[in-house]
Amino acid sequence: MTAPATVLFDLDLTLCASTQDRDALLSDTFDAVGVEQYCDPADLGAVVGEVGTADTEHGFYESIFAAAADRAGVEDVPTDALASAHADLVDHAAVEFCPGAERALEHARTHAESVGLVTNGGEASQTTKLESLGIADDFDATVFVDPRNGVEPKPHPAPFERALGALDAAPESTIHVGDSLRSDVAGANAMGIGSVWVPYDAASHDGAHDPTHQLDTLHEFETVL
Fold this sequence. Notes:
By secondary structure, the protein is α/β, with parallel strands linked by helices. 40% of the residues lie in helices and 13% in strands. The chain has eight helices and eight strands, in the order E-E-H-H-H-H-E-H-E-H-E-H-E-H-E-E. The strands form two sheets. It has a six-stranded parallel beta sheet, sandwiched between helices. The chain has a two-stranded antiparallel sheet with strand order 2-3. Helix 3 (57-72) packs across helix 4 (79-89). The longest helix is centred in the N-terminal third of the chain and has 16 residues, at 57-72. The protein is globular. The mean pLDDT is 92.
């Protein structure tokens, strides 16, 4: 694809990442529930690709705690309580730009006709992140997960359809930039949207989903726009 008219960005681990101490956050989560810690942040990161998409932040946390417990051979884990405790301890305002992200967003706003945000997070938490980064007004359309209004998480077509409709954009002249092969690349590919995969933390290719473009970091974004 050359000179796409519309650029869609994912948010978490694409444009921004948390600055909270992951080890302390996880330790505090288990302490709050009174459960012996059976995993570390790397263990949780390893199972993220194994769990399906979730309609809510709580559901996502519950899924990864359950998957990590299965890997560790731990039974009768209070995943609901762990998910609630973890959500309470997460500071959504404690975020920073991923490498090259701020420049990539500025480049997209200068060279594309329209720029949208399509995130698998809810409006409240994601808006807090956007405001902390100072980019809440940098998008021509924003799409958050909201199953009550028919917006299921990526790779479901609903969030992409919502963004394309709001921007009056055609799939063939659009690219979507994200870190997840399962959610971002697969979802965009299924819609006929060009996919730009920027793997976070050296994620490996799963062999199942082929992005249109693959970048090491968003410092290379100008090569596709």
